[in-house]
Every structure is written in structure tokens, then in C-alpha cells.
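Budget justification aside, the reviewers requested a transparent look at the raw inputs and outputs of the sequence design task funded under Objective 1. We therefore reproduce one unedited record. The lines immediately below are the C-alpha cells for a 725-residue chain.
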């Protein structure tokens, strides 16, 4: 029995959208050519397949950017060679188009992404100031443009039934090829392709695209009625008007003997709305070689004719026109490339669509684009009286109506590398500001919770701004999210920020009255049935700092400590009241009662931290750590206690994370001078354990260190880097 489909109730905005489309369709003079008639496709299917002519079917893939322009030369070479292999995948039966759309976004789009809404508390003035700073940073870049990249591919087929399986096979291959390049890519469905066309046709209005497939039958409209602009005007032949926008299409004449990989990037760096479209058709390899051989034969024939003329005229037969000699050597080089250097021949149409609000501004934009082409010894030529064909060829439909093509080999085509720099601008409600892209000057906005792994590392030389970056992120997080923030502060530099945010600074030192019990245990400490497993790991790490030498704790010592840990918590586990929580002295006494000499050795090593001058950690906890932002100031602990202090703070953070997990709340933990925890094997292993497990418990750790050499000397650092992506 088929399930009954419920009809979607139309909103008022949806009804207005349909009414406007019907009115636009009714206004059209059926005897004349309508705006819809200019749009060159016949049918769009929901799965994203589009029939652009009687027998030509296309699909579109959107792909993201990767870092190319700022990469080292060897990395650039690897990307370039990978792109050459990518292009060589396409045979002569597949026409494909690369489309680069730089379209203006409404101011509200970016304003909503960077503004921090007021909360009605004591920090709204800071929120307003922070938002102003972000707006100033936004003005430095060209974030007013939304930049997208597409690859549209098409094949000829007798029917949609015949086209679909082949298109899907090609689609899978292309996605795999992108994956090999490290490029994220996805296929657009029919609604997304229509939305893409709507954005091009409605640059002046920037209205949201409203469309559902089940609107078509009741309204009697076609998909074109939902995307068509109010009008097209191609009267002058030099430019066109689309709605209220003016535009002009030009083609790139490639005159330079050598091309530069910055040409395409410079076009895409323009601060005005534009579309760059490259239609690429692979030539059958056998035909290409035959064509080149035929050309060489023609050139040789011309050379012989010139030599005969020279003999008849009585001068040296080796003196022939220089162009003839140049063409001959270039043709032979091309033949060698095709036959022995894994090169193919492609026919390329390179189109540039400039747009503006008025003809004067359009002229300036075209002049700027022409200057870029001129810089690379190329020429941008207007498509006179072919503006309509040019505009439709710039649409990401995979249909080329411009018959101006230039033959290029694989490496010459690949020089238009479609990658510049990877942008990171997430529109999430909790996206934080991380700085400016060095190449594009665009904002970097990221919600780490949306990433595959939220863990982070802040690395840099002294004075490079590591602590400032951490403080900025802490402030941004506090103002925008509801997350708890905990800071391990070995240099006492975070207190002013924490106090301004009404947080709590816990100063831990031999003379302080603030105490933290390293033996504190939360019964939800671990996913395991017994919370002692991970706690035992922590106490082993603590004892290693106290007892272990160069080689760390010995197996027998570890066994004794683990046994005593399980015994010392028995009273608390049987009756979990705060006064039953053990302290370090209880562990010390239990070790003293053991028979093994190793136990006495460990107890003796612990003595200074229990009854000696370093007994700051031998007390029940007396600090309230329920504040949203807590800073542990361990500057005055001294060299002997600092590492222990950092480890104890880390354990307190784990306790806080387990409490917050039950409340579905995230906990951010910032560890300054993190390399100190990675010098001993056991403490490094415990830190790695936290790095691996934090994500599942709603924790977001961030390590901060300037001593990269010490960081890399730890064997565990690979695991930390692996869990920080």
C-alpha cells in the first residue's frame, strides 16, 4: 500500500511568489520573445539533470577552494599535476564547463553572520564594541561577494533514460578525482541548480529563491517562470540589460606565448560582481594527432615552395619567412607533446561577464578586467551583437553558444588553475572570529563545534600574538555562546580579562588559601561502569611527575599505585559524601602500609607534597568553580609544582566537563605552555587521552605553546595533531 502524501501548506510568501510568476507569464507578449524563451534549457529534473537541447543532458557539481596561491612551489606543482590528470579524464564525448560566480550578497547576509545580539546583561556594551570591530574588519576584504565554483558536464543521449546512468557514472568519477586533489565537492539537485540560475538573473533584487516542485502542476507554470528576470534587453549589441542590472560579455584572446597561473585568480579578485566561464571540449587524441601531422605537412609544403622561389630568384634557399620556421618548430613540439608527454588537445572558450548598476560603472569594470588580461599579454574582446548568446553561455548549464575557441594542450589549459585560497566563513549562530585570510583579506569565521573535530592548537613564535588570539576567542565565545570557559594560566596574564567578564580567578600557590584536591572524583568521571579507570590514569600521571625519573614509573610501581587508588576510594564509593573524599595524605598512608619496598619509595617521594613544604595539594577543595569562566593562576607555584598544578587543573576540567555533559553544555579549556605536559610519558599520555575523549563529552580543548621543538619531541604529539583537525 502506497503511503498517502500530505500536501504542503503554502505560506503567504509562497503564494505571492506563485502569483508574481503567473502575472509575469501572463504579461509576456506571446507573439514576441519572452524572457523565459531566452533561457536556453528545455527541462530540469529534481535530481539535477537538465536537458539543454534535444539530445544534450547536463549535471552540475559545486566544488570548494583549496590553498594554492600561498602554497610552496613543490605543493603548487603537485596541485598543478593533479589538475592536469583531472582534465585528462574527460574524453571527446564529454563537454564540460567551469563556472566561477562572484555575486553580490545583501548587506543583511553578512551583518547577521557577524553581529552579536544583545542579551540584556552587563556585557552588551562589549558585544556592541566587538560587533563594530568585526564590521571594520569586514570592510577590509571583499566579503560583499559570495564566491562559488561549479563544474557542469554534459553528454549527448537519445533520452533521459539513456543519459542518466552514464551521467551518474561520470559524476562519481569526477567526485573521486576532486577527492584525490583534496577538494570538497557535491552534486547539485534540480532545485539548487534553479536557485543558482535565479541568483544570476536577479542580481539587482537579491530576493530569496522560493520554489517547490509540487507548485508546477497546479499553477500551470514551468521552472523558467520562477527564475526568469523581469526583462532582457539586448538592443545595443555592445551590452545588455537584465532587470535593473547592466552587463557585458567578453571573450579572452590568448595571445601570450606563455600563460601565468595568476590570470584566472586576478579576474576572481575583482571587487565587482562577475562570472567567468570556461567551456572545454576534449579533442579525440587520434584526430588531434592527425590534424597536427596534416598541419606539419602543409607547413613543409609551404617551406618547399618558398625554397623553390628562393632558388629561382637566385638567393640562399635557407632564407625563408621567419613565421614559417616558427610555426614549423611549434607544430613539431606540439606533436611531440601529444605523442609522448601525456598531453591532450582541448578547445577552450574563455568568457567573462561583467555587471554593474549603471553603464558608466560597467565601463569601469570592463576596463579593469581588460587591464588584467593585458598584464598577461592577452586581450579581452567584447562580443559585439552576441551578448545574448554570451550571457546564456555564461550560465552554468553546460551549453556554449559562442563558437570562438582556442586550441590548448592539457598543461596550457591547466594553467587556469581554479584554486586560489581556501576561505573559511561559516554562517553558524556560534561562529567565532579567528582573523583575516592573508591572501583575500576576508574574515575567517568558524564554529568549531561544526567541524569534524573541535580540538585546537595555537602555535607561534614569542610575540606573534598567541595569547592575544586565545583571549580574543575567549571573549568572543563568552559574548556569543553559553559555553563554560576554563583557563590554565601559568603566567598570570588572563586575570584582567576574566575579571572584566565577572569570572573567577583561582590563585594556586604555596601561600594561597585556595585549595584544589587532586583526588576529587566525579561519579560520572568516565563512560566505564567504574569511574576509577580514568582517575587511576590521572593519579599515575601525577605520581610520575613526582616519582618518575627519565624512564618514568616502572611496571611494579604502577601496579602498586593502581592497587592503592582502588582501595583509597572504597569509603567514598560506599558513601559518596564530600567529607568522605580522600586526599593525597590518605594515598600516602595507604602506600606506607604496603609491604613492597617500591611502595615505601613512592611514599617517600610523596612526603614533601603531603607533610612537607609543597603540601598545597593536600587539602579538600574549598574553591567554588561554578562560574561560567574560571581561570587557574598557577604562576607562583614555582618550577617544582607548576607541572603538577597544570595536571591537577586538567583533572578539575575533566570533572567540570562530566557535570556539563549531563546539562548538554559545552566546556572550552585553554592550556597555556602546553609543552610542559608533554615532557613526561605518562602526563603526555593522559593529555592525549583528554584530547581524544573530550569531543564526546562536549569538551573543546585548545593548547597554546611557543616551544614547537619541545612539542614535537614528544612521541604522543602525533596523536594530538591527529585529533586536532
Amino acid at each position: 500500500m502506497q503511503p498517502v502524501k500530505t500536501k504542503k501548506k503554502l505560506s503567504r510568501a509562497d503564494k505571492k511568489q506563485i502569483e508574481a510568476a503567473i502575472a509575469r507569464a501572463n504579461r509576456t507578449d506571446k507573439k514576441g520573445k519572452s524572457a523565459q524563451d531566452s533561457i536556453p534549457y528545455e527541462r530540469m529534473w529534481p535530481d539535477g539533470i537538465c536537458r539543454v537541447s534535444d539530445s544534450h543532458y547536463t549535471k552540475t557539481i559545486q566544488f570548494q577552494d583549496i590553498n594554492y596561491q600561498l602554497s610552496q612551489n613543490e605543493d603548487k606543482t603537485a596541485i598543478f599535476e593533479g589538475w592536469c590528470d583531472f582534465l585528462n579524464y574527460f574524453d571527446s564525448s564529454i563537454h564540460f564547463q567551469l563556472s566561477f560566480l562572484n555575486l553580490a550578497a545583501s548587506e543583511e547576509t553578512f551583518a547577521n553572520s557577524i553581529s552579536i545580539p544583545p542579551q540584556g546583561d552587563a556585557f552588551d556594551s562589549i558585544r556592541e564594541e566587538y560587533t563594530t570591530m568585526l564590521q571594520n574588519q569586514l570592510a577590509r576584504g571583499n566579503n560583499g561577494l559570495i564566491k562559488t565554483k561549479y563544474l557542469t558536464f554534459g553528454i549527448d543521449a537519445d533520452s533521459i533514460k539513456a543519459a542518466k546512468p552514464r551521467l551518474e557514472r561520470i559524476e562519481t568519477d569526477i567526485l573521486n578525482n576532486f577527492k584525490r586533489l583534496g577538494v570538497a565537492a557535491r552534486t547539485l539537485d534540480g532545485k539548487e541548480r534553479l536557485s543558482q540560475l535565479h541568483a544570476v538573473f536577479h542580481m539587482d533584487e537579491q530576493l530569496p529563491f522560493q520554489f517547490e516542485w509540487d507548485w508546477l502542476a497546479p499553477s500551470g507554470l514551468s521552472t523558467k517562470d520562477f527564475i526568469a528576470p523581469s526583462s532582457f534587453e539586448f538592443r545595443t549589441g555592445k551590452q545588455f540589460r537584465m532587470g535593473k542590472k547592466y552587463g557585458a560579455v567578453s571573450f579572452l584572446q590568448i595571445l601570450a606565448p606563455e600563460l601565468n597561473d595568476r590570470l584566472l585568480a586576478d579576474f576572481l579578485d575583482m571587487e565587482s560582481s562577475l562570472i567567468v566561464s570556461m567551456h572545454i571540449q576534449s579533442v579525440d587524441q587520434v584526430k588531434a594527432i592527425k590534424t597536427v601531422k596534416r598541419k606539419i605537412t602543409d607547413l613543409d609544403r609551404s617551406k618547399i615552395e618558398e625554397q623553390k622561389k628562393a632558388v629561382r630568384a637566385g638567393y640562399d634557399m635557407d632564407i625563408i619567412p621567419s613565421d614559417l620556421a616558427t610555426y614549423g618548430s611549434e607544430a613539431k613540439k606540439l606533436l611531440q607533446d601529444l605523442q609522448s608527454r601525456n598531453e591532450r588537445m582541448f578547445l577552450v572558450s574563455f568568457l567573462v561577464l561583467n555587471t554593474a548598476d549603471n553603464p558608466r560603472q560597467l565601463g569601469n569594470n570592463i576596463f579593469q578586467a581588460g587591464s588584467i588580461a593585458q598584464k598577461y599579454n592577452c586581450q579581452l574582446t567584447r562580443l559585439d551583437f552576441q551578448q545574448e548568446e554570451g550571457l546564456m553561455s555564461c550560465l552554468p548549464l553546460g551549453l556554449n553558444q559562442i563558437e570562438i575557441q582556442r586550441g590548448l594542450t592539457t598543461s596550457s589549459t591547466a594553467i587556469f588553475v581554479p584554486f586560489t585560497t581556501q576561505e573559511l566563513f561559516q554562517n553558524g549562530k556560534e561562529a567565532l572570529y579567528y582573523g583575516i585570510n592573508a591572501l583575500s583579506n576576508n574574515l575567517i569565521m568558524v564554529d568549531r563545534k561544526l567541524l569534524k573535530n573541535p580540538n585546537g592548537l595555537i602555535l607561534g613564535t614569542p610575540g606573534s600574538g598567541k595569547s592575544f588570539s586565545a583571549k580574543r576567542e575567549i571573549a568572543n565565545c563568552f559574548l556569543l555562546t553559553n559555553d563554560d570557559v576554563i583557563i590554565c594560566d601559568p603566567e598570570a596574564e588572563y586575570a584582567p580579562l576574566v575579571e572584566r567578564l565577572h569570572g573567577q580567578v583561582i590563585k594556586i600557590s604555596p601561600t594561597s588559601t585556595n585549595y584544589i584536591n587532586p583526588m576529587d572524583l566525579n561519579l560520572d568521571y568516565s563512560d566505564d561502569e567504574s569511574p576509577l579507570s580514568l582517575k587511576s590514569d590521572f593519579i599515575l600521571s601525577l605520581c610520575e611527575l613526582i616519582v618518575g625519573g627519565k624512564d618514568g614509573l616502572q611496571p611494579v610501581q604502577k601496579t602498586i599505585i593502581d592497587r592503592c587508588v582502588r582501595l583509597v576510594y572504597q569509603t567514598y564509593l560506599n558513601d559518596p559524601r564530600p567529607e568522605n573524599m580522600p586526599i593525597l595524605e590518605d594515598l600516602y598512608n595507604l602506600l606506607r602500609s604496603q609491604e613492597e619496598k617500591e611502595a615505601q619509595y613512592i611514599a617517600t617521594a610523596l612526603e614533601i607534597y603531603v607533610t612537607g613544604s609543597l603540601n598545597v595539594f593536600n587539602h579538600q577543595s574549598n574553591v567554588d568553580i561554578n562560574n561560567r569562566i574560571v581561570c587557574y593562576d598557577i604562576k607562583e607555584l614555582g618550577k617544582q609544582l607548576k607541572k603538577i598544578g597544570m595536571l591537577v587543573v586538567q583533572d578539575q576540567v575533566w570533572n567540570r566537563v562530566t557535570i556539563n555533559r549531563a546539562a548538554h553544555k559545552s566546556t572550552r579549556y585553554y592550556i597555556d605552555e602546553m609543552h610542559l605536559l608533554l615532557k613526561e610519558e605518562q602526563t603526555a599520555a593522559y593529555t592525549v587521552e583528554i584530547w581524544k575523549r573530550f569531543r564526546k563529552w562536549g569538551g573543546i580543548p585548545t593548547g597554546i605553546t611557543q616551544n614547537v621543538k619541545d612539542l614535537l619531541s614528544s612521541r604522543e604529539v602525533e596523536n594530538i595533531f591527529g585529533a586536532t583537525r
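The first helix runs from residue 12 to 27. The first strand starts at residue 43 and ends at 44. Computational costs for records of this kind are itemized in the attached budget.
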